[in-house]
# Entry
Amino acid sequence: MANLVEEFQAISLKNIGCGYLIDTPEAICHVIKSILHLPTNPPSLYIDIEGVNLSRLGSVSILQILVLPSDVTYLIDVHVLKDEAFTTAGATGQTLKDILESTTIP
# Structure
């Protein structure tokens, strides 16, 4: 089973330093699984958004999520994934949108 997990990660996640580039729906599922049920005090998730003319009329290119307890950074390529970055459901049925909008996850 461990080999299967490693193969999945090798296919879906592109390692960059101490983080991963996320540009497939399968990789989004991995991110969702890894950020659910983390401690909330202190906050476990920190985000940064990069894009073009960030404002009401701009567009998001990269969503960067630092998962502090594991010291892993996910760079989610919103430019490539478009809506799938936020609407792809993980194994529990939750999406990244659900997590980012949650009132219980700081």
Observations:
- The mean pLDDT is 88.
